[in-house]
Design a protein that fits this description.
By secondary structure, the protein is an alpha/beta fold. An 8-stranded mixed sheet has the order 3-4-2-1-5-7-8-6, sandwiched between helices. The longest helix has 24 residues. About 6% of the residues have low confidence.
Length: 254
């Protein structure tokens, strides 16, 4: 199976912005084992700006574009150093791909991107993809790695996209404010009723929310790729998700 895994900032870092070492180590170990089982894995990783904030000792995430770009430049180095170190412990090589929207919308650049990604997978490499926040501006404002991950999954004919965040899945209401909210295990169509359930981001480190996740689900359903929203607090749940077990909310056409 070809699997795209998107990890949000809230999964990678503590609220302080500092790396959640235990969780990241567990994530890398689990993904390495999934690759050992014969699956192809592409990692779409948020966290560059958040990691930069922590590395620079800033009190909060910068609000201006140059400040965000500076934090991303520092954080991206830190993030890739960590991934390279941890995955190499399990004998897996990582490659960094920093892209902007143009790499997905321009036909020539999209073809080059897809060809590079495909060759990396053929070589047994784990591609780590992020938006090029150090030069992009619109992408930082949108902060939408959920849609980016879906576009990557669409581009390389992935069978499954997993979005790891700080929430267990899609609920009938906001579980942070409504104790009666119920997890929806399966969604077959992202219609208006489902879209009404989308809330906003519950963290200060990340900028995505359920709206972007539902947008990603639409892209996946349209190209025949299943998608799962799950909580990143338990990295080993990736095993169950890849095996098709009931974890989080799975988006799949009937």
């Amino acid at each position: 199976m070809r699997v795209v895994i998107k990890i949000g900032t809230s999964t990678l870092a503590h609220p302080t912005g500092q790396l959640n070492i235990r969780r990241v180590e567990s994530l890398c170990k689990t993904m390495s084992d999934i690759m050992n089982a014969g699956h192809e894995v592409i990692l779409v990783s948020s966290g560059a700006i958040g990691m930069g904030v922590g590395k620079l000792g800033l009190r909060e995430k910068p609000k201006d574009i140059p400040g965000k770009q500076a934090a991303a430049a520092v954080g991206q180095c830190e993030l890739m150093y960590i991934y390279d170190k941890l995955f190499s412990e399990y004998h897996h090589t990582v490659a960094q791909l920093l892209i902007t929207a143009d790499n997905l919308t321009n036909e020539t650049r999209h073809t080059n991107f897809t060809n590079t990604l495909t060759r990396l997978l053929e070589l047994g490499v784990l591609p780590v993809i992020n938006e090029n926040d150090t030069v992009a501006t619109e992408e930082i404002v949108i902060g939408d790695n959920d849609t980016l991950a879906a576009r990557v999954a669409e581009s390389i004919d992935a069978e499954l996209l997993i979005l790891l965040s700080d929430i267990d899945g899609l609920y009938t209401a906001d579980p942070h404010s409504n104790p009666d909210a119920v997890l929806i295990p399966v969604v077959n169509c992202v219609d208006d009723d489902i879209k009404k359930l989308a809330g906003v981001s519950s963290t200060t480190q990340g900028t995505g929310g359920m709206v972007t996740k539902l947008r990603a689900a639409e892209i996946c359903l349209n190209c025949g790729c299943e998608m799962v929203i799950a909580n990143g607090n338990n990295p080993e749940s990736l095993y169950e998700i890849v095996d098709g077990q009931d974890v989080g909310t799975r988006f799949v056409r009937k």
